[in-house]
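call fold(seq) -> tokens
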Amino acid sequence: MAVTSKAFARTAAATSSATLYTVPSATTAVITNIAVCNNAASSGTFTILLDDIELQKDTAIAANSTIYIDLKQVLATTKTIKGLASATTIDFHISGVEIA
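ret:
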């Protein structure tokens, strides 16, 4: 059994729901940290879904700020992390480990 640290997503948010990461076949993923950064001079909102279930829904994020979410959430093979935001100036940084 191999355990590999991984950056699941390092991307600017889309304004409609987009898949940020899909767990590969024969693999289990554990999300350990999510950082959401708003690079704009105005506030915004973001949504993160784990396997199409909302983890954060229309969460407000202030201008020029970062929100850190520390968690241990397991996702099985083929499950997804999706996200969207009110503006493309909001970035997602999602880290964890894959177990294969």
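Residues 19 and 82 are 4 Å apart (CA to CA).
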